[in-house]
């Protein structure tokens, strides 16, 4: 396995969802900061890169404090990558609206029984943008797709590494974390009872903030994290988790039309929309700490 390499061939019509030139740039940026394997070559419809030894995680693994501490550290490490003096814009809204346009253009009556109308989707997106943009979540370099199988645990070295950078880019800090918390529910058998409890989240966020302060060299007197900081991030994260549902529901509707993968993308989109509308009332009622 020391001589193994990975060759990835891009899926059918995935250029609608992913900027491939941007993916390669992000790959190289993460590699330069010790957060990605070596990229050996790219070709017209794929790329070839170093194999990372270790175990791709499952939902039961990321609930373990021993492992989620490593995940929080690695995410903080990626979030600490600087933007060379410029203030980047978050990629969330432009991508979400682009996906929505693709969905709207291919919207048909057979879908309308399962998913909200175009008008409702547009209203909810406007609400999300207005509501979430006011939360002052920092713009950082994000993975944006941290599902379990994109986390490789190397027990021998005692660390985790993230793979698959198709959706990486500058975005809201709280989106990356909230999106990861949604992934506790799994993908093939989605179960939102596995979404981390408030207690688990506060513990996770405390580890993350300690690591982020340390990596960004904030507060030379130490990396003590206050309960208010943790609570503030908790509110931001759970609100941005709503946007994650919408983003991946749109993604799944596009995949439903073009993908050749044997997966029920329409069912997945319906699950994400349903979860959004289920948790929106309680999440929107959360208030930032004074």
Structure description:
With 290 residues, this protein is mainly alpha-helical. The protein has a single domain (54-284), classed as Aminoglycoside 3'-phosphotransferase, Chain: A, domain 2 (Alpha-Beta Complex), CATH 3.90.1200. Helix content is 50%, strand content 11%. The protein is built from 10 helices and 8 strands. The protein has helices spanning 20-32, 59-62, 65-79, 92-105, 109-112, 118-132, 173-182, 198-215, 227-258, 265-284; strands at residues 5-9, 39-43, 46-50, 55-56, 139-142, 151-154, 159-162, 169-172. It has a 3-stranded antiparallel β-sheet, with helices on one face. Strand 2 (39-43) and strand 3 form a beta hairpin. Helix 4 (92-105) packs parallel to helix 9 and helix 8 (198-215) crosses helix 9. The longest helix is centred in the last third of the chain and has 32 residues, at 227-258. The radius of gyration is 19 Å and the shape is globular. The N and C termini lie far apart (53 Å).
């Amino acid at each position: 396995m020391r001589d193994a390499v990975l060759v990835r061939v891009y899926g059918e019509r995935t250029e609608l969802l992913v900027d491939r030139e941007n993916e390669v740039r992000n790959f190289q940026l993460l590699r330069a900061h010790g957060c990605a394997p070596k990229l050996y070559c790219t070709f017209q419809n794929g790329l070839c890169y170093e194999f990372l030894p270790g175990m791709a995680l499952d939902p039961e693994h990321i609930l373990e404090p021993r492992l989620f501490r490593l995940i929080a550290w690695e995410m903080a490490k990626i979030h600490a990558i600087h933007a060379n003096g410029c203030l980047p814009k978050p990629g969330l809204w432009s991508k979400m609206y682009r996906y929505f346009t693709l969905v709207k253009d291919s919207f048909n009556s057979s879908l309308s029984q399962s998913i909200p109308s175009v008008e409702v989707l547009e209203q909810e997106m406007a609400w999300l943008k207005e509501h979430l943009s006011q939360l002052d979540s920092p713009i950082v370099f994000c993975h944006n797709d941290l599902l379990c199988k994109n986390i490789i645990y190397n027990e021998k070295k005692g660390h985790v590494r993230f793979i698959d950078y198709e959706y990486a880019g500058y975005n809201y800090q709280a989106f990356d974390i909230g999106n990861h918390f949604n992934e506790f529910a799994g993908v093939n058998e989605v179960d939102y009872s596995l979404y981390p409890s408030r207690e688990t989240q506060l513990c996770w966020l405390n580890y993350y903030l300690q690591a982020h302060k340390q990596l960004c060299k904030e507060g030379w007197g130490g990396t003590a994290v206050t309960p208010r900081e943790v609570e503030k991030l908790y509110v931001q994260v759970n609100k941005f988790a709503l946007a994650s549902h919408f983003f991946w529901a749109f993604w799944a509707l596009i995949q439903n039309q073009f993908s050749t993968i044997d997966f029920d993308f329409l069912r997945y989109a319906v699950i994400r929309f349903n979860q959004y509308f289920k948790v929106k009332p309680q999440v929107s009622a959360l208030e930032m700490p004074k």
